[in-house]
Specification:
- InterPro entries: Epimerase_deHydtase, NAD(P)-bd_dom_sf, UDP_G4E.
- One of its GO terms (molecular function) is UDP-glucose 4-epimerase activity.
- Belongs to the NAD(P)-dependent epimerase/dehydratase family.
- Residues 3-251 form the NAD-dependent epimerase/dehydratase domain.
- The chain has helices at residues 11-21, 54-63, 78-83, 85-105, 139-158, 189-197, 225-240, 258-269, 293-299, 308-321; strands spanning 2-6, 26-31, 45-48, 68-71, 110-116, 161-167, 169-171, 205-207, 219-220, 222-224, 246-250, 256-257, 276-278, 287-288.
- It is of the alpha/beta class.
- It folds into two domains: 2-171 and 222-250, Rossmann fold, CATH 3.40.50.720; 189-221 and 253-321, UDP-galactose 4-epimerase, domain 1.
- The strands form four sheets. A seven-stranded parallel beta sheet has the order 3-2-1-4-5-6-11, with helices on both faces. Strands 12-9-14 form a three-stranded mixed beta sheet. Strands 7-10 form a two-stranded parallel sheet.
- Strand 5, helix 5 (139-158) and strand 6 form a beta-alpha-beta unit.
- The mean pLDDT is 97.
- The structure holds uridine-5'-diphosphate-4-deoxy-4-fluoro-alpha-D-galactose.
- Residues 76, 78, 116-118, 140, 169, 187-189, 192, 205-207, 218, 220, 258, 281, 284, 288 line the site of uridine-5'-diphosphate-4-deoxy-4-fluoro-alpha-D-galactose.
Length: 328
């Protein structure tokens, strides 16, 4: 198939593109490079474009005879989404509609969508299964949930088939060390911890140690980005084989606290990474752990890098050799 990957220059997108290059599919990356990095795209065709540009989207579908879409292009910062809801609804919902409408106009009816654990909000039932109630606590989470619902309506009306992948905490880097996480500003725990280890940051704060968890710090389900990428390939292949629209969680089913992440990272880098205790970050749920049984059962997804130490080792390989990210 000719597969359009929107947001293919981003952290997760670039790992999806890399894994797709090892399959028989053709990859066409579509990215506006606002946050993504051209250097992160390790092969295939690249089109610099925005989802707001309907004419370019349509032209791209026709020129490359697109068969299926993996849609990752989005804004994804929880905090920013609360301050700038318009930006999130515009980009994640309205620009996403341009993509869906271009798909329908070109008779392309298979899409794998990059969704998030943020659609659930602060749930009490652990592990989280796909059918639990969805009460997102951020505009970001809402924008992703709205898009899932829109795809459902497009399925009913136009026969669009979608697989929505709700990621938990994407982390780690490709084993080659050639690509990895490079956000500006960086807000994610593991890169921040490793930047502290490299002396690139003065301070590392643990956001709250008074949560009802085993050591008081928040517990998250960290999943390796290559395992995430493989799930996209299984999903797009399943759609090609006629799979009905489905939603899957993607996590390891294990939770690690912020303190445990810092301790494991200290072990990996071989020095004690110092952290101070800070205030809670507004909106952080205490514990988020996924049940990914559905995708394991239905698509045979089998994560290879589940162990936290392995995840941090791959991230460390990237950060150590690219302290400034993709910048030379
Ligand atoms: N944390 C710290 N110090 C830091 C950074 C993070 O203690 O300097 C803590 C956070 O409070 C949280 C944990 O580390 O408890 C993980 O934080 P991240 O920012 O790495 O990840 P989140 O769990 O907040 O967010 C992730 C995704 C979001 C998604 C969300 C779903 O990055 O896109 O899960 O809840 F929306």
């Amino acid at each position: 198939m000719n597969i359009l990957v929107t947001g293919g220059a981003g952290y997760i997108g670039s790992h999806v593109v890399k894994e797709l290059l090892d399959t028989k599919h053709q990859v066409i990356t579509y990215d506006n490079l606002q946050k993504g990095h051209k250097e992160a795209i390790l092969g295939g065709i690249f089109v610099k474009g925005d989802l707001a540009d309907k004419a370019l989207l349509d032209q791209t579908f026709k020129k490359y005879d697109i068969d299926a879409v993996i849609h990752l292009a989005a804004d994804s910062l929880v905090g920013e989404s609360m301050e700038k809801p318009a930006k999130y609804y515009q980009n994640n919902v309205i620009n996403g509609l341009n993509l869906l409408d271009t798909m329908i106009a070109n008779d392309v009816k298979k899409i794998v969508f990059s969704s998030t654990a943020a659609v659930y909000g602060d749930v009490k039932e652990i592990p989280i299964t796909e059918d639990l109630s969805k009460k997102p606590t951020s505009v970001y989470g809402k924008s992703k949930l709205f898009f899932e619902e829109i795809m459902q309506d497009y399925d009913q009306a136009y026969g669009l088939k979608y697989i929505s992948l709700r990621y938990f905490n994407a982390s780690g880097a490709d084993e080659s060390g050639k690509i990895g996480e490079d956000h500006n500003p960086e807000s994610h725990l593991i890169p921040i911890v490793l930047q502290k280890a490299l002396g690139l940051r003065e301070k590392l704060a643990i956001f709250g140690t008074d949560y009802p968890t085993r050591d008081g710090s928040c517990v998250r389900d960290y999943i390796h980005v290559t395992d995430l990428a493989q799930a996209h390939i299984l999903s797009v292949n399943a759609l090609a084989e006629g799979k009905a629209s489905t939603i899957y969680n993607l996590g390891n089913g294990d939770g690690y606290s912020v303190k445990e992440v810092i301790a494991t990272a200290s072990e990996v880098v071989g020095t004690n990474i110092e952290a101070v205790i800070g205030n809670r970050r507004p909106g952080d749920p205490a514990t988020l752990i996924a049940s990914s049984n559905r995708i394991k059962r239905e698509l045979g997804w089998n994560p290879q890098y589940g162990d936290l130490k392995t995840i941090i080792e791959t991230a460390w390989k990237w950060h150590k050799n690219h302290p400034n990210g993709f910048k030379k």
